[in-house]
Backbone:
């Protein structure tokens, strides 16, 4: 999460006597963006259709301007030269915030593409469709515009459900996929039982908190061992990251499907499930059951001392295992 250490925050609170004027989450963004750009990944916006735009972070080398071109010439993205890796974020934050600890580690060997799903990070659509299938459609259409025709797919939480939909509907494009903290589909039974277990009436109450107390509860559920942060930081996070509440609530409503409408797709790709052992939002039992449902193409491993946010809590372990899986699949192709 885009959160500085508690020591830094306390120091900043002392520096700024009128602390209501400074949003510490927003103030960290320029530094984060600068670091991501140093890793060779830059922002780019794709218009998939009139009224629908998706923000991406894409490899800098795909936007190189020809030597003899005019400075005012619009540079069209070129086909990437390295294997493509698509990282899809979850519901709490935009793409680059979610994957901030993965970019530098992965960009050396892979062309990394990080989208902001619709109604996150500036991506939007006036199309009323809020389904994961529409998110998948817009992502694939964007990637084709960006010159990408085949990729490795990594999905976290809500992004994992979108990733499964991409692999199901566009199997020729997905070389293999890694999923963490997610499920194949959110049935009404899973939704109801999970929310009851967590103590919430609706997914919106859980994932779209309006108060510091609500965000603290979500954060405690998402990590193995909660860290202390001042209330000011949680308040700033809500202000910066939890936007487009109406549209996001609609995304959550469209996520839930009837039990009778569920079918398990026959995926041809290798699928690796990588789970935090202490995940409370989608506990490891979901991963074990999903591995059985997916069959022989699925593998699974857990990360100790990590919860739902395993990629942020233990990024070195997560990155090492992710790269190991990707390398094993790439060597077979």
Residues:
């Amino acid at each position: 999460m885009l959160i500085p250490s508690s020591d830094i925050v306390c120091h900043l609170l002392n520096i700024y006597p009128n602390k209501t004027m400074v949003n510490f989450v927003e103030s960290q963004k320029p530094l984060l963006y600068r670091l991501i750009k140093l890793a060779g990944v830059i922002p780019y916006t794709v218009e998939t259709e009139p009224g629908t735009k998706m923000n991406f972070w894409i490899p800098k080398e795909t936007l190189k301007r020809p030597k003899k071109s005019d400075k005012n010439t619009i540079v069209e993205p070129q086909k990437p030269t390295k294997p493509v890796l698509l990282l899809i974020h979850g519901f709490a934050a935009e793409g680059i915030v979610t994957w901030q600890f993965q970019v530098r580690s992965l960009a050396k060997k892979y062309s990394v593409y990080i989208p902001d799903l619709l109604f996150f990070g500036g991506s939007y659509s006036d199309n009323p469709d809020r389904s994961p299938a529409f998110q998948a459609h817009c992502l694939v259409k964007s990637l084709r515009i960006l010159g990408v025709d085949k990729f490795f797919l990594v999905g976290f939480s809500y992004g994992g459900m979108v990733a499964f939909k991409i692999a199901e509907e566009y199997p020729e494009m997905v070389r293999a996929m890694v999923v963490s903290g997610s499920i194949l589909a959110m049935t009404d039974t899973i939704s109801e039982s999970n929310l009851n277990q967590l103590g919430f009436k609706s997914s919106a109450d859980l994932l779209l908190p309006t108060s510091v107390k609500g965000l603290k509860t979500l954060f405690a559920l998402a990590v193995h061992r909660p860290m202390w942060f001042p209330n000011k930081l949680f308040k700033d996070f809500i202000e910066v990251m939890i936007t487009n509440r109406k549209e996001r609530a609609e995304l959550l409503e469209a996520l839930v499907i009837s039990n009778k409408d569920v079918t398990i797709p026959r995926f041809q790709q290798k699928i690796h499930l990588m789970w935090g052992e202490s995940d409370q939002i989608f506990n490891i039992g979901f991963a074990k059951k999903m591995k059985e449902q997916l069959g022989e193409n699925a593998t699974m491993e857990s990360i100790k001392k990590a919860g739902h946010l395993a990629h942020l809590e233990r990024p070195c372990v997560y990155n090492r295992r992710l790269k190991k899986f990707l390398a094993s699949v790439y060597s077979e192709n």
Summary: The first helix runs from residue 6 to 15. The chain is about 40% helix and 20% strand.
